[in-house]
Each structure stands twice: as C-alpha cells, then as structure tokens.
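Hi there, hope your week has been kind to you so far. No rush at all, and the record is pasted right below.
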Amino acid sequence: MPTPNETEILRITKEEKEVDKVLISTRMGISTEYSAHLLNYLVRKSFLEEVPANGGTHKTAPRHKLTRKGALALLAGLHHAAGKYALAVRRTLFLKDAVDEKINEMTDYVRKEFPGKKMPSKRRGKSRVLPL
C-alpha cells in the first residue's frame, strides 16, 4: 500500500493524465528533489511509468503516467476507506438504537411515576433533549 504522499501523487496523476516533478512539487508543496524521488520510487514499484519524450529539440523533465497497478492501488485505498466508513455507520446506528431504547424506557418511567404531568413530546424512540 502506498504512503499518503505516494497516494496523493497517484491521485494527481489520475487527474492530470501525465505529471512531472515540477507539477507534483507545486501541487503538493514539496521540493522538486523530493517529488523526483517519489516519482522514481513509484516507477520502481510499477505504480507509474515514464512517458516517452515527443522528440522535441528541448530536453524536458521526464513525464509519468499511471499504470494499471497504480490505478488498482487507488481503488484498493477507496475500498479500504469505504469499509472504515461503513463500520463507523453501523456502530453509530447501533448506538443510536441503544439511546432510543433508553429514551423509551425513561419516557415510560416518567409517565408511570408522574401520571398527571403532560409529556413535552409524543415522539417515542427519537433522540432529543427534553426540557426540564
């Protein structure tokens, strides 16, 4: 799994189609030396590949594009994030159900112990703050 900086480079490359060390440096706010190091590392790991030069008269910085392995790494990261969020949602819904049950229990208690008083709300099983 790529590091956060490496993942950011893969995301930028996906957006831009082709990147070089200057573009990465500018977008991420890092030095061109560090961006060149990260790009070379991602090429060695087969997440990126160098794009052949167009054959112009001026030498340009090497450009890089995403490989299938790089795209799959981004996809795996998204699946991982989705799993974490799904777990958080399930836990939140479980806790909300537990709180709603406690609200129902407390509502029943108040009605039983203080029968002559009007309840502030007729909604049962809904998380809310009751006035004192």
Summary: The radius of gyration is 28 Å.
